[in-house]
TrEMBL record:
The gene is 20353243. Belongs to the peptidase M20A family. This is Peptidase M20 domain-containing protein 2. InterPro entries: Amidohydrolase, Bact_exopeptidase_dim_dom, Peptidase_M20, Peptidase_M20/M20A_hydrolases, Xaa-Arg_dipeptidase. Gene3D superfamilies: 3.30.70.360, Zn peptidases (3.40.630.10). PANTHER family: PEPTIDASE M20, XAA-ARG DIPEPTIDASE. Pfam families: Peptidase_M20 (PF01546). One of its GO terms (molecular function) is dipeptidase activity. It comes from the Eukaryota. It comes from Gaeumannomyces tritici (strain R3-111a-1) (Wheat and barley take-all root rot fungus).
Length: 422
């Protein structure tokens, strides 16, 4: 069930889309669905590329968009595998995010080919609507966003100005449909956790483990002690908070006291401020382990993502744009767990990060080989394109309805202020 806090804070004005605009969006998507959009989808799915190495995805997108007559900037915003395409003029700006990086070893097990397909469909539909409406109606930018899987591509795009002046930014993400109750196929208001990521390095002193172990300072003891301390800390963490880590280096030979060890930890909570606060508690576990073992300790911060704070108004507009009964507003609330660099975008402008189900067996959710296979099916592609149409219709309301856009912005500003205040 939706909680009171998940409801829109303001009553939005009534709205009916111009039938000719709606037809322009739908017709354009249908025109390109089985050729251009499907080609991009299949190229990405069949040729998985890791973060910042998405050359085929980038090149095929750029070539396709140019062939369709759009102005495209390859290698955009200083990132070799990012691109930007724009249509329209004047008015407000919509940014659509196309992800396309894969996971090591299991390909598109997070379905980024479907994210790209939905974004392309939405872009083509909105571009047609803007052409129908005429000059000054607004602008739409299709942004190729590399390296979501740990690489923080959107963080670099934010720093380079890719979202500056945006009225809203939209994308959708696939999840496992068995978590949803038919006829519901999607969830609009999807919150995701903020994360803080660190590598932690302990430095001790080597020694012969049999001849003179007393001369050594054991850095492996430090990471083991820290690991157990973090495990105990979990008893006092809030239910939605997560801490998990792996050993990156733990010594080379049993008869040499390990002098250099490394662990990598992710710390997650419901807001960026809360995740930073939780990290300070986790850090004390590492500091204590260093003191107890006599080791030195240092930290290297990795890409860290803000929580996803969707615009309630934009989510409602998306629900209204889709077939009745097929999109839940916020149930289940944890349909997509984890973290994403889209969270940082939602701190820059009102954002939409909806989720749609694709068909897998129970237990075969994101980041599994079975999910990668499901992301390549015709049915999954069809659902992604349907989401693209919904995003285009919701985004058109942002472009065309001044009162809605103003209310959406005010609601977002209040929400972000509250999040930053903790």
């Amino acid at each position: 069930m939706e909680s009171k806090t998940d409801q829109p804070r303001r009553k939005m004005t009534s709205y009916t889309i111009d039938p000719e605009i709606a037809a322009a969006i739908t017709d354009q998507i249908e025109k390109h669905k089985d050729r251009e959009i499907r080609k991009i989808n299949d190229v990405i799915h069949q040729n998985p590329e890791l973060a910042y190495k998405e050359q085929q995805a980038h090149d095929n997108f750029v070539a396709m968009l140019r062939w369709l007559g759009f102005a495209v900037t390859p290698h955009a915003y200083g990132l070799h595998t990012a691109f930007s395409a724009e249509a329209g003029s004047g008015g407000r700006l919509i940014v659509l995010n196309a992800e396309y990086d894969a996971l090591p070893g299991i390909g598109h097990a997070c379905g980024h080919n479907l994210i790209a397909s939905a974004a392309l469909a939405a872009y083509l539909g909105l571009a047609a609507a803007l052409a129908k409406a005429g000059p000054g109606a607004g602008r739409v930018r299709l942004l190729g966003t590399p390296a979501e899987e740990g690489g923080g591509g959107k963080l670099k795009l934010i720093a380079a100005g890719a979202y500056t002046g945006a009225a809203a930014s939209l994308m959708v993400h696939p999840g496992a449909s068995y978590l949803l109750t038919p006829p519901v196929r999607e969830v609009a208001f999807v919150r995701m956790l903020a994360n803080v990521k660190y590598q932690v390095f302990f430095t001790g002193r080597p020694a012969h483990a049999a001849m003179a172990p007393w001369d050594g300072v054991n850095a492996l003891d430090a990471v083991c002690l820290a690991y157990n301390a973090v495990s105990m800390l979990r008893q006092q963490m809030r239910p939605h908070e997560r801490v998990h880590g792996v050993f990156r280096a733990a010594g080379e030979r049993p008869n040499v006291t390990p002098a250099e060890t490394c662990v990598e930890y992710y710390v997650r909570s419901d807001t960026r401020a809360a995740a930073e606060a939780l990290w300070l508690r986790v850090q004390k576990c590492f500091e204590g382990a260093a003191v107890a073992t006599g080791c030195g300790v240092r930290y290297e911060r990795l890409n860290s993502y803000a929580d996803v704070r969707p615009s309630r108004a934009l989510c409602r507009a998306y629900v209204d744009a889709m077939p009745p009964g097929t999109v839940a507003f916020a149930d289940p609330p944890d349909f997509l767990a984890g973290s994403t660099d889209m969270g940082d975008v939602t701190y820059e402008c009102p954002g939409f990060h909806g989720a749609f189900g694709i068909d897998t067996e129970v237990g075969q959710s994101n980041h599994t080989p079975a999910f990668a296979a499901a992301a390549g099916t015709v049915e999954s592609f069809r659902r992604a394109v349907g989401c693209g149409r919904g995003m285009a219709l919701a985004a058109w309301r942002v472009l065309s309805d001044d009162a809605f856009a103003e209310e959406m912005r005010a609601e977002w500003e209040a929400d972000i202020h509250a999040a930053k205040e903790g």
